[in-house]
Write a structure and sequence with these properties.
Oligomer: heterodimer
Distance between the termini of chain A: 41 Å
Strand content of chain A: under 5%
Number of domains of chain B: 1
Largest interface: A-B, 70 and 55 residues
Largest sheet of chain B: 5 strands, parallel
Shape of chain B: globular
CATH topology of chain B: Rossmann fold
Number of helices of chain A: 20
Radius of gyration of chain B: 18 Å
CATH class of chain B: Alpha Beta
Number of strands of chain B: 5
Strand content of chain B: 15-25%
Strand order of the largest sheet of chain B: 3-2-1-4-5
């Protein structure tokens, strides 16, 4: 039985090791490879009692199931061609105008992130947006950066938008609809800040193409055949062609979303709504031969789910022996504007030092068993918007990449860091102000 | 020794640059070597790579969208240069570089006699800002003469405001 300072030190060392391992993934080993043994050590040494560990697993269960269902839902939407269609659709609506494309990408990234989580935006939407911009002959950078930024900053709207939200959702005590209602205004405020910042920051890259672009050169107009001209003006015909809209996928996603909203009213855990939506799409895709069963299991990321369970126990060990109390003493307890802002700032700093997933677990542990929902939501604004400050989501990863960079000549992203320094502080401030406004309007949200 | 002309081609403005190179070729008696250069910003792929890393390994390594973006960028660069060579209608060496755009352009000008590039800044208000920060750096540091062209029609003399 280890207790007191020794327990705290050991748990912190294990947490650091688990996080470092997850970021580096030596030899491509899954992050659970160290996290699960570390969690076992924590329980065996009595740093976290078996009963407490079991309680952790029970709380995390629906959350992890929810995550798996949403990951599968996004994968199935992609398998049914939704993202390919979206790329062509955005390209057509933009009419080749860079500013218009940026607005459309903002809308698409904000909605995809909110409904299908930030993973879908990073993994599925970003490459599609890149190809769309390039096929229009536009500079892809603002549009690609918009996807990576909004994947974080637009992930505050719904409990499903980010794993951090899922983890904190039950601690808020809110229903799905109440959560969305309180986060709607902060979501819009942060996106608005991002949009204004992007328009200014990328003003050089967003200039409309000059009138000469795509015209014939002065030399050999007579010799040029039609085929060449087509090729020059639309280098990527595959992208330019719009496939039929995936109506079925949109219908299922729409009904799933309505189900999330209704879940609180009829007393069903929203995780079952997500599972039902994923099951409907899975059966259809399987019948059409678009997916394999093994692919479906892989997309649910079972090893990552295992990692979240193990991380929950390790974090409980690290926060349960003094560090939690020390941090807790620093945290505001009243949902005043200053209190909300304080929680959001501390959460943002923590998310940048480690990663927003462990940061959320730590903050939840510190906020205690029955925190004011406003404080939990402010914490989420911090851990979701904050990671844009360091483009890889944490200082530790960033420093490690710098070490690698010296060896492999990978670029340092000064531009991305400057963009983050511009948007994150203002975004946090705007998001918290909007949350405070909503809470005040709602009469204090008991 | 033949002269060497580097044409820096970017999305949106490359047509005008290629046309200027064609005019340079017409005006000279000798036939200079022509290099058509496009520089990929490696920060884009790296940023996506980083965003994926921020997910802490959710999803598998082989699905890293940073790799997909980098590969798609290389393919698009090759297509742009091929289209430029067709427009030029003369032999040219095609060069793709990746890194910090402004530094790669200057490095590609080693041994060149002339760099042709386009203004990429705010051309609605003429002045220092008609050069974007990449072009500004290139103009300041190029190790050769620079032919800086307007990607659309050159402004009329009357566009200059009267002195205070």
């Amino acid at each position: 039985m280890v207790s007191g300072v020794a327990a705290e030190a050991l748990a912190l060392a294990l947490l650091a090791g688990v996080l470092l391992f997850a970021m580096l993934q030596p030899r491509g080993l899954p992050e659970a490879a160290l996290a699960v043994p570390a969690a076992a050590v924590i329980v065996v040494l009595g740093i976290v009692s078996p009963a407490e560990a079991l309680r952790q697993l029970q709380t995390l269960g629906p959350t992890v199931g929810f995550l798996a269902a949403i990951l599968v839902l996004a994968y199935l939407a992609d398998a049914a061609g939704m993202f390919t269609w979206l790329g062509g659709f955005l390209g057509k609506l933009s009419a080749g105008q860079p500013v218009r494309l940026l607005g459309l990408v903002f809308a698409a990234a904000a909605v995809i992130t909110a409904v299908l989580s930030l993973d879908a935006t990073v993994v599925l939407l970003t490459p599609v947006v890149f190809r769309t911009a390039v096929s229009l002959g536009l500079r892809a950078k603002p549009h690609v950066y918009a996807c990576t930024h909004l994947a974080n900053s637009a992930s505050t709207l719904l409990p499903v938008s980010n794993l951090t939200n899922l983890l904190a959702f039950s601690a808020t005590g809110l229903s799905f609809l109440q959560f969305a209602a309180l986060m709607g205004l902060p979501w819009l405020a942060v996106i608005a800040v991002e949009y204004v910042a992007f328009r200014w920051f990328f003003r050089d890259d967003l200039r409309p193409a000059p009138a000469s672009a795509g015209t014939e050169s002065h030399r050999d107009e007579a010799h040029r055949d039609e085929a060449h001209r087509d090729k020059e003006m639309a280098p990527d015909k595959e992208m330019a062609r719009i496939t039929a809209p995936p109506v079925f996928v949109f219908a299922v996603l729409g009904i799933t979303l309505l189900g999330f909203g209704a879940s609180g009213l009829v007393g069903v855990e929203p995780v079952w709504v997500a599972v039902a939506g994923a099951a409907v799409l899975a059966v259809r895709s399987r019948v059409r031969g678009e997916i394999s069963v093994s692919g479906l299991v892989r997309e649910a990321s079972p090893l990552f789910c295992l990692f979240v369970f193990a991380l929950g126990i390790v974090v409980a060990g690290a926060t349960g022996h003094g560090m939690g109390r020390a941090l807790g003493a620093m945290l505001p307890t009243e949902p005043t504007f200053a209190g909300l802002l304080g929680v959001a700032l501390i959460a943002a700093v923590l998310a940048n030092v480690v990663n927003n997933l462990p940061a959320t677990l730590v903050m939840l542990g510190v906020l205690g068993l029955d925190p004011h929902p406003g404080l939990v939501l402010a914490m989420l604004i911090g851990v979701n918007v904050g990671p844009n400050l360091t483009y890889v989501g944490s200082l530790a990863t960033l420093l490690w990449r710098r070490v690698l960079a010296r060896r492999e000549a990978a670029p340092t992203l000064t531009e991305f860091l400057r963009l983050g320094a511009l948007t994150v502080p203002i975004g946090l401030l705007a998001g918290v102000a909007a949350l405070w406004f909503g809470l005040t309007l709602g009469g204090g949200m008991q | 020794m033949t002269a060497r002309v580097v044409a820096w081609l970017s999305e949106g403005t490359w047509h005008a640059v290629v046309d200027s190179v064609a005019r340079v070729l017409e005006a000279t008696n000798s036939s200079p070597e022509v290099v058509l250069l496009h520089v990929l910003d490696s920060q884009v792929g790296e940023a996506v790579h980083g965003a994926f890393g921020g997910l802490l390994g959710r999803g598998m390594r082989e699905r890293d969208p940073g790799t997909a973006v980098t590969d798609a960028g290389r393919a698009a660069a090759a297509e742009l240069l091929e289209a430029a060579r067709r427009r030029l209608g003369a032999p040219a060496e095609l060069v793709v570089r990746a890194g910090r755009i402004e530094r790669e352009v200057v490095a590609a000008c080693a041994g060149a006699d002339l760099l042709v590039c386009a203004r990429d800044g705010d051309r609605s208000r003429l002045g220092p800002h008609s050069l974007g920060h990449h072009t500004r750096f290139v103009v300041d540091h190029a190790p050769c003469a620079v032919l800086l062209i307007w990607p659309d029609a050159a402004p009329a003399l009357a566009s200059i405001p009267s002195p205070p």
